[in-house]
Amino acid sequence: MKRTIISTISVVVLSTVLSGCMDKLEILPNDQIITENFFEEGSPEEIESGVNSMYQRLQSSYMYNLRMWTLDIVAGEGRVGNEAGGNGLETTQLSNFTATSDNSGAKELWRGPWAGISRTNWILTNIDKSPKISDAKKTQYKGEAHFLRGLYYFNLVRLFGDVPWIDKQQTASDDLQVSRTSKDIVYQHIIDDFSDAASMLPAVYENTTDIGRATKGAAFGLLAKVYLTLKRYNETLVAIDSVMNLGVYSLNRKYEWNFSDLRENGPESLFEVQYEKDVTAYSEFDILGQGGWHHEYMAPLASINIGGPWGNFGWFAVYPEFVESYEPGDLRKSVSVWCEGDVYQGWSYDPTCSQTGHNVKKFLCENIGVDRAMDSPLNFPVLRFADVLLMQAEALNELGRSSEAAALASSENDGGPLNRVRVRAGLPNVTTTDQVELREIIRHERRMELAFEGGHRWFDLVRYDNDGEYAKTFFQSIGKTNFTTPKHLLLPVPIDDIDANPNLLPNNPGY
Fold first, then answer.
1. How many Å apart are CA 88 and CA 355, to the nearest integer?
2. What's the chain's Rg over C-alpha atoms?
3. Are 448 and 362 in contact (CB under 8 A)?
4. C-alpha 206 chain-centroid distance
5. Which residue ranges make up each domain of the chain?
6. All residues at 6 or more sequence positions from 64 whose CB lies less than 8 Å from its CB, including other chains
7. Has the keyword Transport been applied to this entry (predicted)?
8. Coil vs helix vs strand at 98
9. How far apart are CA 212 and CA 271, in angstroms?
């Protein structure tokens, strides 16, 4: 069941313009000015629309509607297709490791989270002032704010390293020439945010109109991912146990159900970005738009129009190396990538549609809006239970508990975490308990299970070791010889922002 809970909010120094929405986007007037006594006088509905606004930046092209999934191109899973007229040049430069500090893709990834962070701080600073909101609801709203601030910062710190830590609403009297904060300190703040969120949020929501909000399980799941990134494996397992003990999550019986607009926010979903079609308040490329871009960007550039009125862009051409990495019988292959002989509504996929012979299929949506472009209703997954299981397998293996990581499974519902994921994919159980062998198997399994889902592969490549040699070896194996360490483990802070605020110097190594 789909419920869109996203609002929009523009935070200026002295005033805020709010356009809120609940369910099918019940829009407040775009010219409504949020005064300093908004929280004291605002109705519960108005306050909720402000809370909802914290989620909006996740929807934008600066994050999960474009930039986050193009990190899978940077990670070497494919190339930009349809480069006519310079389309995707910034992503091509990033993926060829030739980008400089004026790269627009890096700039959008840098700038994308800050509006969301500002909104979370706005809520955390002011929500207790509202006399019309119950204490229980205030706790929930603060939990959502902590969760989202943690998520926004988690993406920032993994991409850019040291970033400014801002944890309060900024005003005209504040010094806006902020400096970068050590990534170690930022990570501790992220851990605190997810921990606070887990203590404040419900495991499930009673009201179906709240589907899509952050939950206790989402907070524990992302906390586990933070600990795994920091190689704090015991703490990873504690956070994952907290997810398991909720009794809320399970693997979908079929892998493809994770990418159906008819099965969104299902039992495998810990958190996903909500999208909705036919919301006409915004134009197709509006950063505040509610429709998903994934279908039209990724669908094959073909004679058949399986997109909106503009057709398909064929923008993610998948490398044969990735396609050939599927094991025989892997059921995920036909769900994730277009291959010769694939048929859709009587049309057979032609490999000449793509410069590589393949395109991404995972976000194909038959229910896409036909009258508007860039208007898919299909949500985008941020964290799935399969990811949690594979994190559990990795942590167990790194702690020498390899037999637990690879315990035999008879179905997706029982057995060791690695083999539960493999059995669901139609693959045989892994039987080795050799730690080194199992490490590579788990890494391979993460690559195939989470392909094209918002940069998982990139973040995995750069976290597997401390010096980037694992990533370097992989990129060299696919001919990406420009990759160097430590330079390409991080993106550059945009030169425009450094020119405006020299306190952001020094830039990341090599830029």
1. 14
2. 22
3. no
4. 25
5. 383-460
6. 58, 273, 380, 382, 454
7. no
8. coil
9. 7
Q: Which two tokens stand for residue 209?
A: 């109109």
Residue with tokens 């990534």: 183
Task: Give SS3 for 114.
Answer: helix
DSSP state letters, 313-343 = ---EEEPHHHHTTSPTT-THHHHHEE-TT-E
Read off the pLDDT of each residue in 21-26 and give the average, rounded to a whole number. 28
Residue whose entry in the numeric block shows the structure tokens 């197709």: 284
The residues, ordered by sequence, that sit 6+ positions from 427 with a Cβ below 8 Å of its Cβ are 327, 329, 330
Residue 506: is it exposed, middle or buried by C-beta count within 10 angstroms (0-12/13-18/19+)?
exposed
Contact 54, 144 (CB under 8 A): yes
Per-residue confidence (pLDDT) for residue 29, from 0 to 100: 34
Peptide bond just before 506 cis, omega within 30 deg: yes
- Give the tokens for residue 31: 């010219």
Q: Sign of the C-alpha dihedral, residues 34, 38, 39, 41?
A: negative
The amino acid present at 290, given as its one-letter code, is Q
Q: What burial class does residue 26 get, using C-beta atoms within 10 Å of its C-beta: 0-12 exposed, 13-18 middle, 19+ buried?
A: exposed
Instruction: Provide φ and ψ at 498, rounded to 5°.
Output: -70, -40
421 three-state secondary structure:
helix
Chain segment 462-475, per-residue pLDDT in tens? 999 989 999 999 99
Is the pLDDT at 159 greater than 50? The verdict is yes
Token pair 């060829």 is at which residue? 96
Position of tokens 């939990």?
143
Phi–psi pair at 401, nearest 5 degrees:
-100, 50
Single out the residue of 234, 110, 124, 201 nearest to residue 168, CA to CA: 124
CB atoms within 10 A of CB 173: 6
Residues 80-124 have pLDDT tens digits of 998 777 889 999 999 999 999 999 999 999 999 999 999 999 999
What pLDDT is attached to residue 173?
Answer: 64
Indicate the residue type of 187: Y
In contact, 69 and 315? CB cutoff 8 Å? no
What's the CA gap between 217 and 238, in Å, rounded?
A: 13
pLDDT in tens, 426-442: 999 999 999 999 999 99
CA distance 20 to 8: 6
